[in-house]
Design goal:
mainly alpha, single chain, about 120 residues
Amino acid sequence: FQSLVCPAPYHVKEYLGAADTYAIDYRLLPAISVLESTCGIYQRENNRWGWASARRGFASFRAGLEYIAHQLAEGRYYKNKTLEEKVHMYNPRPQYARQLESLMRKIDAALPSIAANTRP
């Protein structure tokens, strides 16, 4: 998030916790937030992920994260799909998938830094 000039707080622990809880790729929701709202800079009503074309708001960041993580894991359009299939359902444009994949690689590259900053 720092390398992408995202505003703090970064919510790293929350993203990792949601990924663990719902067994989804830990990079998916942060990467979506970068693409959809520039890490929350352009969010609307705590919707950093562009859910429902950003017409849907959430009571808090955590409420939005929980809802969307649950949908990506258990929602009828996402359940039992591969990561690539989930991304296609989220946004079917091929350019979106390429951009998301690039961001996910950047997150992987930052993993040693993330791990150091999230230790108890």
